[in-house]
What we know:
It is built from 19 helices and 11 strands. With 376 residues, it is an alpha+beta fold.
Amino acid sequence: MQIYKVGGAVRDRLLGRPVSDIDWLVVGATVEQMQALGYRPVGADFPVFIHPHTGEEYALARTERKSGRGYGGFTFHASPEVTLEEDLIRRDLTINAMAEDEHGTLCDPYNGKADLDQRILRHVSPAFAEDPLRVLRVARFAARYAPLGFHVADATLELMRQISASGELQALTAERSWKEIERALMEDQPQVFIQVLRDCNALNELMPELDALLDKPGADPLAALQHAAQAQLALSVRWACLLHGLDDLNQVKALNQRFKAPRECQELAALVAEHQSLCHRAQTLSAVALLNLLQKFDVYRRPQRFEDFIAACEMDARGRWENQAYPQADYLRGAASVAKGVDVKGLVDKGLTGQALGEALKDERLKALQAYQDRA
């Protein structure tokens, strides 16, 4: 039995990046041997075990063959006869197909170190094209390592185009696709993820609405997304920035549902697409329109959602009008503060309830907003 450190831990150590999770590979062992040593199996269909003391995952060396469509359409074979090289060749990229033995010696049968040094994302073997999820994974790695100068190899990009043309991307589950999208959006340069998907024609397969938008003049979702990443904004803001330029709200809803985006992402993306124009011309709105906007966002109970809306609109503005100030942000924050500052208790103390209280509260908030506009 031989145990190797594999994949991302080896790659990131060589890049000088922090190593968080470590994947371990066991060569020359059986399921029975692992269990006899105290390792606990994970699931019934996959030869992965939990270390009895560290809780880390150890996988038996395995081969795989295509047996169906999509990410899950594979049959795995694990046995003591499977070699390290046979296990590593089934991996996606050469930089992820390196291993280290117990002495720290690098095992690199597919020249991952050379590609690491040359900043190339290259597939390990033609079997790369059997797994459609790898299109999303490679695009995500391109976004992650873009600051280091990495790019996708031409031959790998061509295989990704073949996958896009095959229809296999349609077999990916919404949950698995969203997991890759979410991780990619939270990288420092998430716009690279979208651009790589577009370069291999995958964006047209997965998000045709967004692909068409990128050909239109005006709103620049990739620039807005890049600014959101630079400002280290939340996932929901980044998703809203990506979709904000879609003219048809039904397209936003369709994309939300297609990938089963989290509720807060769905809500913010729809609200930004519908109301961003009001944010951009906030200082020209009447007090009534301003109050309606605040009411729409329920700023009294959900202030963070309104703050996220303002942030997404500001990122859009930065994408459109580079280096220009965006006073609308502080203006709307001030308006929200004024509306929330109206004394509800005083109205209740006057005996107002129900609809009468609601109307009186609306009137007081309008007066407060009109006074705020007069001062602004």
